[in-house]
Amino acid sequence: MSVYTHLTQQDIEQLLTRYDLGDLTSFKGIESGVENTNYFLDIDKKGHLQRYVLTLFEYLPADTLPFFINYTDELKSSGLPVPNPVRDKNGIALQSLKDKPTLIVQCFAGQHPDARNLSLDQCQQIGTMLAKIHIAGQGSALYQENQRGLSWLDDQQKRLSPLLDQDDASFMTEHWKNISNAIKAFDKLPKGLIHGDLFHNNVLFDQGKISAVIDFYQACNDWLIYDLAVTVNDWCLTNKLELDNQRSQALTEAYAQVRTFTEEEKKAWPLMLQLAAFRFWISRLITFVYPESQMDQEHQANLVRHFLDPNEFKEMLRLRTNDFASKLQ
C-alpha cells in the first residue's frame, strides 16, 4: 500500500517558510513507496530550479527519526550517494506537517532501473554499493532495533493467521515455525547497520551508474547477510519469481569483493532468503488486513491507497524453501 496524505499548495508553502530554499513552483505526489507519503517539490531560488522530496511519515514515530537522519549523514560523510535531510533556517531537519513527522531531502538525478530488465552490470553495482554501506555502518556507534525483526514477525503471524483462509494460515504457521527454529543455530552472523529495504525502486541510475540509494527508513541493526537476501530477492528474479542464477551470482560476488562472507553466512544463506520473503509477505498482508490500523479517522479520510500483491512473496517463500541450490561463494 502506498499512502498519500493530501497536501495543498498552502500547506507546503507554509512549511517552506521555515527554510531558505526558495519559492515553490510545483509539487506532485509520488506513487511509489509503501508506508510514507512522498511529494516531489520543484523550488526556484534566484532562477535556479531544484527538485526536493518531501516525506510525511504515516507510521514511524518522531522519536525514531533522529537515527535515520544521523545515519544518512554518516553515509554521506563516507562518500556514499545518499540523500541526507535538508536543515531549516535554525539547523533543524525534523519538522511536522499535518501532525506527522516530516523531512525534506534533495532529489538526485537519475531513474529507477526497469524491474523487468535488470542487467548483470546493475546487479554488480548494487552488490558493491550494499557492501560499502555495510562496511560504513559497521564503524558507526549508532543503533536502531529492527522494528520488523523476529519478535515483530512472530507477533504479526499470530495476529494474521486467524484472519486468513485455512491454507494460507497453515502455510504461514508452518513456515514461520521452521524459519524461527532454524535461525537459532546461527548466533555468530555478522551484524551492523543495514538498509533493510534495498529494492530496485530505492536506487537511481544516471548514465549507467548508481547516482543515489534512497529510502533508509527501514534501516536498523541486524544481520548483514539478511540485508543482502532482501536485495537479491528483488534484483535477481525471473518472471516466475525464481532466482536468476547469473544475476544472483553477479550481485553476491560483487558484494564479496568488498566484504568477504563468513562460513556461517554461507550456511545461513538459503534460510536468509526465506526469512526475507516471509518478512515482506507479512508486511504486504498487513496492508490488506489492517490498512489504516495506526491512523485516526480524520487521516483516513485524506488517504489514497495503492496495494501491492502479497502473494508474490508467498510464492517466493515457497520457492526459496524448496531451493537448496542457492549458495554463496
TrEMBL record:
Belongs to the pseudomonas-type ThrB family. NCBIfam families: PRK05231.1 (NF003558), thrB_alt (TIGR00938). GO terms for molecular function: ATP binding; homoserine kinase activity. InterPro entries: Aminoglycoside_PTrfase, Homoserine_kinase_II, Kinase-like_dom_sf, Pseudomonas-type_ThrB. GO terms for biological process: threonine biosynthetic process. Its EC number is 2.7.1.39. It catalyses: L-homoserine + ATP = O-phospho-L-homoserine + ADP + H(+). Pathway: Amino-acid biosynthesis; L-threonine biosynthesis; L-threonine from L-aspartate: step 4/5. Keywords: Amino-acid biosynthesis, ATP-binding, Kinase, Nucleotide-binding, Threonine biosynthesis, Transferase. This is Homoserine kinase. It holds the Pfam family APH. It is an enzyme of class 2 (transferase). It comes from Endozoicomonas elysicola. Residues 27-259 form the Aminoglycoside phosphotransferase domain.
